[in-house]
UniProtKB/TrEMBL annotation:
A matching Pfam family: MTHFR
Stated family: Belongs to the methylenetetrahydrofolate reductase family.
Source taxon at top rank: Bacteria
Enzyme category, top tier: oxidoreductase
Pathway note: Amino-acid biosynthesis; L-methionine biosynthesis via de novo pathway; One-carbon metabolism; tetrahydrofolate interconversion
Named cofactor requirement(s): FAD
EC number(s) per entry: 1.5.1.54
Protein name (Swiss-Prot/TrEMBL): Methylenetetrahydrofolate reductase
Cellular component, GO, one term: cytosol
GO-annotated biological processes: methionine biosynthetic process; tetrahydrofolate interconversion
Species the sequence originates in: Gluconobacter wancherniae NBRC 103581
Gene3D superfamilies recorded: 3.20.20.220
GO molecular function list: FAD binding; methylenetetrahydrofolate reductase (NADH) activity
Record's keyword terms, sorted: Amino-acid biosynthesis, FAD, Flavoprotein, Methionine biosynthesis, NAD, Oxidoreductase
């Protein structure tokens, strides 16, 4: 069959990956990104390991994906533990590699800091300062992080939301949320954001469950609540990976459908570097491959 170009339908999508640890993992990740690139995502992003631990691998993964997929890439970048000069060097390397979009983050304090963030003596004070700094380096598109259930270190949900507004007012173009499992969690957050005058897009981050044990651990760490019905549904499924994948796609699709019914038009998928569940989710949202 000759290749045919189809119209891309469905909501906008973006995909998030993390840099692989081995050469074999990097090759498999590149294959995953090539596969998902066929859905014509708005962008694909690559995370920046805690405290900049994956700086070089993040950059090389971004370069590979720019070259191999042609999709606009976004590089995550944190300012924890780094001087302004070090952050600027990474941002310039992104720009020179064709990565014109940054997911700008403060980052987590190191484990020995017991959750207390202290800026580097020559560094950015926090995310707002970082965003203002990046704006001076180059005309990057900038996404920022948002927390529908509030960041675990937030003084209050109100202070957390006001801080999100400050990040967007400082130059963030959109917010991407931490994952959550109930549509109402996102919708309430979106309403509260609108009430304090946030007008920029808030894109829900959707996590299709991979390893169940790991998903509940991540949720615990980042303050995302796991409804009892979901714990029951996934109970024991780590022993049945194929069933788990079917259930994960079904549950994530239901969440997307509920959000779409409320006008959500862009989903950011946490792929966990696997193509299959995100692939299924895109198809379920009516998203076709650009060519076949
Ligand atoms: C979409 C997304 C992508 C991510 N990617 C990465 C990644 O690639 N690498 C990585 O290491 N981590 C990543 N993280 C995690 C992130 O680094 C942590 O959640 C970190 O603790 C906070 O970073 P931030 O940019 O959200 O910080 P901020 O929003 O600046 O601060 C976190 C919270 O602290 C409070 N706060 C901070 N400063 C103020 C202030 N001045 N006034 C009032 N309240 C304040 C607010 O409640 C705020 O929500 C990501 C998170 C999300 C949601």
């Amino acid at each position: 069959m000759p290749a045919q170009t189809r119209t891309v339908a469905g909501p906008e999508i973006s995909f998030e990956f993390f840099p692989a640890k081995t050469e074999k993992g990097a090759e498999s990740l590149l294959q995953t990104s090539r596969t998902l690139a066929g859905f014509g995502p708005r962008f694909m992003s690559v995370t920046y390991g805690a405290g900049g631990s994956t700086r070089d691998r993040t950059l090389s993964t971004l370069k590979d994906m720019v070259r191999e997929t042609g999709v606009p890439m976004a590089g995550h970048l944190t300012c924890v533990g780094a001087s302004k000069g070090e952050v600027e060097a990474v941002a310039r390397a992104y720009w020179d590699a064709g990565v014109k979009h940054i997911v700008a983050l403060r980052g987590d304090p190191p484990p020995e800091a017991n959750g207390v963030y202290t800026p580097h003596p020559q560094g950015y004070v926090g995310a707002v300062d970082l965003i203002e700094g990046l704006r001076k380096i180059a005309p990057f598109e900038i996404s920022v992080a948002a927390y529908p259930e509030a960041h675990p270190a937030a003084l209050s949900p109100e202070a957390d939301l006001a801080h999100l507004k400050a990040k967007l007012d400082a130059g963030g173009d959109r917010a991407i949320t931490q994952f959550f499992f109930e549509a109402s969690t996102f919708l309430r957050f979106r309403d509260r954001a609108a009430r304090i005058g946030i007008t920029k897009p808030i894109v829900p981050g959707i996590l299709p469950i991979g390893s169940v044990a790991q998903a509940w651990k991540f949720a615990d760490m980042c303050g995302a609540s796991v409804p009892a019905w979901m714990r029951d549904l996934f109970d024991g499924l780590d022993e049945r990976p194929q069933t788990r994948a079917l259930v994960a796609a079904t549950v994530a699709d239901r969440l997307c459908q509920e959000l779409r019914a409320e006008g959500v038009e862009h989903f950011h998928f946490y792929t966990l570097n696997h193509a299959d569940t995100s692939y299924a989710l895109c198809r379920l949202q009516g998203r076709n491959m650009q060519s076949s």
